[in-house]
């Protein structure tokens, strides 16, 4: 156990240094220009932060889910967009980690580790919550290959990823439709992308539709067997929810830290505003909420000994509470700065805009409440 904790500490230390020295100076520029930070990602890749979840034998860091969450948290403290790109990287990698055989993992993981290849989780439906179905993309068996038809919406790393983990409906057995996972490589005929979405936050992330038009995928790109798709998608969603929770903690902590520092410097009525009890109570509540959210996310990230159902419940609780906390804390941090908080000269308005979407993607918080209630009532 101590060895695992030591490894986590090392990974986190790399993330802290990279966040402060490399990511933070670029955060405002990324938000203002909206340009995808490819050069920055190459640096993150060299630091091993694009391959935290990959086994060491394939050039990865061999980190666990908590290590992944620690990285996301530290990067999110300074730049939501950069943390989202890394979150999408882990989400796109997870189906291969869960359902890929040895040859598939060697093939794709070496590509990620050696070439800093980006991945994307191609799960979201434009009109349906990912937890609830149905699946819009259909797969048809044709000889030794599969033909994919349909579209996925709101895909982070959309047109910039090199590998797409795709979930599609596939008829198996006696006409029964199951859920199957595939890896589709960029450049595959029939793989196309919609326009880049314009968003109010996470401006550096590329979010697009991904379209499949008679997209032929070899048998060797299919992950898992006929019955494996559902487990792959559930385990992947657990990681996504937990990762979004970690991102929310980072955004909230970054906003809290900035507001705290500002309160020592801002003078009103002849003394720092940090000396006023009303503000102290406000910051105390913010800090309490962040610590509670962190505890829930870390518990969800270390689900040893828990069932898949329990992991699903924990990740939904963590995601829901942490992202609501991020929205509340970033909004309160803007309030502490008063008019300055609303100005783009300070990072808090960016953090508030970035925090909002954490309540929406990865399954909205309304959907998370449905998931939590489902497990509580056993229906």
Pick out its properties:
379 residues; alpha+beta; Butyryl-Coa Dehydrogenase, subunit A, domain 1; Butyryl-CoA Dehydrogenase, subunit A, domain 2; Butyryl-CoA Dehydrogenase, subunit A, domain 3; 8-stranded mixed sheet; two-stranded antiparallel sheet
Describe the protein.
- The structure is a single chain.
- This protein is an alpha+beta fold.
- The chain has three domains: 2-118, Butyryl-Coa Dehydrogenase, subunit A, domain 1 (Orthogonal Bundle); 121-228, Butyryl-CoA Dehydrogenase, subunit A, domain 2, CATH 2.40.110.10; 230-377, Butyryl-CoA Dehydrogenase, subunit A, domain 3.
- The chain is 54% helix and 17% strand.
- The protein has helices at residues 2-33, 38-46, 65-76, 80-99, 102-115, 229-265, 277-301, 308-337, 348-358, 365-377, and strands at residues 119-122, 138-142, 145-156, 163-172, 176-185, 191-196, 207-218, 222-223, 267-268, 271-272.
- Strands 1, 2, 3, 4, 5, 6, 7 and 8 form an eight-stranded mixed beta sheet that branches.
- Strand 9 (267-268) and strand 10 form a beta hairpin.
- The longest helix has 37 residues, at 229-265.
Helix-strand makeup class: alpha+beta
Helix and strand sequence? HHHHHEEEEEEEEHEEHHHH
Enumerate the spans where pLDDT stays under 50 for 5 or more consecutive residues: none
> Helix segment count?
10
Tell me the domain tally: 3
The CATH superfamily title of the largest domain = Butyryl-CoA Dehydrogenase, subunit A, domain 3
Short description:
This protein has 10 helices and 10 strands.
């Amino acid at each position: 156990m101590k060895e695992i904790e030591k490894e986590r500490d090392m990974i986190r230390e790399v993330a802290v240094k990279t966040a402060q020295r490399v990511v933070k100076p670029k955060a405002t520029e990324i938000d203002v220009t909206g340009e995808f930070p490819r050069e920055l990602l190459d640096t993150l890749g060299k630091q091993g932060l694009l391959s935290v979840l990959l086994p060491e034998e394939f050039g990865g860091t061999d980190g666990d889910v908590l290590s992944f969450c620690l990285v996301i948290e530290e990067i999110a403290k300074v730049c939501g967009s950069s943390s989202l790109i890394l979150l999408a990287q882990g989400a796109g990698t997870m189906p291969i980690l869960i359902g890929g055989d040895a040859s598939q993992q060697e093939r794709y993981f070496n590509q990620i580790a050696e070439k800093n290849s980006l991945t994307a989780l191609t799960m979201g439906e434009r009109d349906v919550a990912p937890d609830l179905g149905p699946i819009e993309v259909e797969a048809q068996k044709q000889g030794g290959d599969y033909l994919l038809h349909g579209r996925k919406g709101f895909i982070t790393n959309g047109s910039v990823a090199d590998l797409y983990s795709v979930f599609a409906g596939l008829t198996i057995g006696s006409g029964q439709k199951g859920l199957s996972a595939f890896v589709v490589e960029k450049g595959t005929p029939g793989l196309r992308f919609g326009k880049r979405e314009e968003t109010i936050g996470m401006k550096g992330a590329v979010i697009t539709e991904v379209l499949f038009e008679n997209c032929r995928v070899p048998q060797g790109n299919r992950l898992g067997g006929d019955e494996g798709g559902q487990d792959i998608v559930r385990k992947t969603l657990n990681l996504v929810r937990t990762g979004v929770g970690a991102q929310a903690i980072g955004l909230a902590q970054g906003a809290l830290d900035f507001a705290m520092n500002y309160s020592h410097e801002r003078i009103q009525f002849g003394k720092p505003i940090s000396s006023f009890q009303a503000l102290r109570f406000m910051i105390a509540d913010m800090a309490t909420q962040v610590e509670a959210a962190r505890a829930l996310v870390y518990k969800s990230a270390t689900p040893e000994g828990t069932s898949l159902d329990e992991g699903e419940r924990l990740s939904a609780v963590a995601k829901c509470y942490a992202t609501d906390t991020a929205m509340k804390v970033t909004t309160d941090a803007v309030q502490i700065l008063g008019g300055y908080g609303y100005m783009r000269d300070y990072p808090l308005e960016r953090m508030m805009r970035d925090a909002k979407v954490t309540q929406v993607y990865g399954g909205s918080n309304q959907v998370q409440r449905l998931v939590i209630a489902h497990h509580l009532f056993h229906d």
